[in-house]
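Hello,

Following up on my earlier ticket. Below are the four sequence lines again, exactly as submitted.
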Amino acid sequence: MAAVARHAGVSSMTVSNVLNNKPSVLPATREAVLKAIAELDYRPNTAARALASASNYRIGLFHRDSDSALLSAMLVGALNASARLGVQLNIKVYDQKSPLDSVRDFLSTSPDGLLLPPPLCERVSAAGLPEEYDVPMVALAAGRELGNMHCVRIDDEQAAYETTGILLRAGHRRIGFVRIPSLAGESRFAGYARALADQGLALDEALVWNARPTFDAGLRLAEEILPGKRAITAMFAGNDDMAAAFVNVALRTNLRVPEDISVVGFDDTPIAVKIWPALTTVRQPLGEIAEVATRHLVAQLQARDKETKAAPGGTTFVDYQIIERNSVAPPSS
Amino acid sequence: MAAVARHAGVSSMTVSNVLNNKPSVLPATREAVLKAIAELDYRPNTAARALASASNYRIGLFHRDSDSALLSAMLVGALNASARLGVQLNIKVYDQKSPLDSVRDFLSTSPDGLLLPPPLCERVSAAGLPEEYDVPMVALAAGRELGNMHCVRIDDEQAAYETTGILLRAGHRRIGFVRIPSLAGESRFAGYARALADQGLALDEALVWNARPTFDAGLRLAEEILPGKRAITAMFAGNDDMAAAFVNVALRTNLRVPEDISVVGFDDTPIAVKIWPALTTVRQPLGEIAEVATRHLVAQLQARDKETKAAPGGTTFVDYQIIERNSVAPPSS
DNA sequence: CTGAAAGCGCTTACAG
DNA sequence: CTGAAAGCGCTTACAG
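Thanks for your patience. The regenerated structure is below:
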């Protein structure tokens, strides 16, 4: 940095000011510094920044070992943001048997904040950990607003509403729905119900099944639903894994997808394009969610340090995207 | 750290020595420090360590956006190791169209070292970048020894040999093989050929197909091979994605897996358990590979700083594991 | 709008 | 075997 300062004929403080986008720097000075940075190909030392910035925050990102499909995007997003902000990110794997204990253990090491993906965020929120510990927590993709912690997510209800709309517009009237036990599941069910209501269709409880959001559960459910006379012409599965299970069972029982039955998923995980037909599904930008969540958490930390008390709860929305592939077609008559 | 030192009645230097396992510390002193650390629940500041240690290395880990299945494990492994070693890890996404340019771009920012997963490591090695730039590079899971950079990997040849053995022991004699265009593909093919030779079986070139290791390529190949009279009773696919494609096409063409045809994959990516039947496959411990590679790279950097010249090339092996699930059965007569 | 000084929490030679 | 001093590369108040 000293070299850049010399090159630009300013002090290293000014270089720092430019780097951190301080508004006080004169445009001309800023440009000179930027030019010096480019010419010397200078890259700030993350460690030094982290150390020097009063912040020096340490935040934890929890994840289960199992769901790598969702994990890598989140990791990359959180990593990017934390590197830029100079905060120390601790990646923690939690035990499925006692997730709360894992969180408490980590909390006992006095971290500055927590990043909680589902389903952990729901558990932590319900257990009242945000009130018990004075450590800011941010939920990722929680499905709906959480009273005691901020949440960064897509609008699950609206996404499910629009996705159901695609099925309705294709001509389907008997659309099955898998309701997964989570806040996201509830929000999506609400969106599905609203879409039906908008078309003047009654919600038929017989077409709604409750199941855990795993491939295995999807397999069992599909084996129960698909054979014989089917009540549905389309299935809105709880997520991509379940949708993949439906496609799999359909193929085994000589049903064509999408000709005989349409299937849509949720999440746009890698499996969506690793089966045939590729799944029509909703993309949640997990990387962006993690990035935004990390920034929000750090902002919360800084605000707190300045005694600007922030309100708990609240939501930041991130855009989703409906990806139409090959698993939806009009119902065969 | 000062608090720990005070608590233990020593200087902070001694605390540092304990933390870094310096042999000079007396057992009694060490214990006192360790006790103080535990009582105060002290955790060293990574940023400060990184900054203070003369090292202060910055290394890059490249990856494609596409293969998230392999990515997350590698990320976590490299992250763990780099946090522990206090080195700065830059995660870089490279462009598939011009991977070498991405590497050169990054190299121009003067990093201290590179971590290269396949297939990038092969390209970089073949292009002679290790000779061109004086930056240590370590290849992850490269499939076989690379002359100009160190490689951390499983023994692909032996893994394929053993996996083919499982098929042979189940009674299969006409075993198909998908040869993917990579060093790993070559090594695995060699293992397959050796297993056949061991049983006195001739290698039948008609049962060996070349294809890129993607789900789509697997789909096309399976659609060509499976219908009609089949030459094979089992297929050793190039990886899990391809194996999944074979299972998918088999189901669509009314073939039962594994009763009518056995299928095995390679990698043990998440898709292996997200299809039915779940795949018998070879697990590559990517997390461990990344961790070992990061440590090796840093060791190389430190050795170089001390002018202890290290030999280029060389290999560190990591154990693989054959996971037997439900996609293999004896051939139907 | 810009800069001189102090300090973030460690580690590295170097004494003793 | 242990410690006092300097310094890693930045940023944060504080002057001017």
